[in-house]
Amino acid sequence: MQQEEACESKQSLTQSGQISENLSLSGALTKEDEEMARSALSTFMAKEEEIQKRKMEVQERVLAQMGRIEQENRRLATIREELEALADPRKKEVTLVQKKIDAANKELKTLRRTSQKKVKYFD
Predict the structure, then answer these.
(1) Record's family (predicted)?
(2) Residue 13 and residue 36: Cα distance in Å, rounded?
């Protein structure tokens, strides 16, 4: 497919090269040369439009696939979490308790600092 396009592009370039030779030899384009130039130009532009159209189609397909991949990744993450919960049902509870302990420790640190400052102040 690409080889065909390359050959046709070369042909159109060859035609435009012939046109420029005719222009330089005669100094003006004949109607036949003008028609060849228009034909070559319209063929070239049609091919460019087709290439752009295909490019957009491929881009849309890739984006659609990426969207599906992202959805599947989210679904797999959810399944993984569910499997981990099934593997150790107490793990969630332990995690929650650890978070509560960490929060309490933070509070105790600040209270300890303020109480140490007060002890130093009153001593």
Answers:
(1) Belongs to the GORAB family.
(2) 11
Token readout for 74 is 């989210």
Tokens of 41: 């130009």
Give dist(CA 108, CA 44) in Å, integer.
Answer: 77
Nearest-CA neighbor of 40 among 8, 4, 87, 6? 8
| pLDDT tens-place string over residues 82-116 | 887 777 777 778 888 899 999 998 888 888 888 88
Q: What is the pLDDT of residues 5-62, one digit of tens each?
A: 555 555 554 555 554 554 444 556 688 888 898 999 999 999 999 999 999 999 999 9
Rg (CA), the chain: 37
Contact, 56 vs 80, CB < 8 A? no
Full-model pTM: 0.41
